[in-house]
Amino acid sequence: MEGTVALTVVVCCACGVVYAIPTTLDKNLLEKRSSTNTFCPNSHTWHYVGQSAVERERDLHRQIAALKEDKRALDRRLALAKPRAARKPRLVKPEEASA
Ligand SMILES: [Zn+2]
What we know:
The protein has helices at residues 23-32, 53-86, 94-98, and strands at residues 7-11, 18-22, 38-39, 45-46. The chain is α+β, with helices and mostly antiparallel strands. Zinc ion (ZN) binds next to loops.
């Protein structure tokens, strides 16, 4: 049998054994993070922690959408506040001032 398999070196976080897994498996583990476990040669279960690149991107899009909505709300408040701020002082006649 001939062929080439790309391997990625990993270290078990439980026992420290250094071993290699197919790079395609490593990419899959990196994508799926805590939802997919694998095993070291000594039978310890492990998975990558943290957010995957896809999850990070999804969260950033959500943050951008929330910030855009905040900006729209602030723009509406600013638009409502501007006419009041721009209003000219009204001259008060002496008879109105004493009333
Ligand atoms: Zn181990």
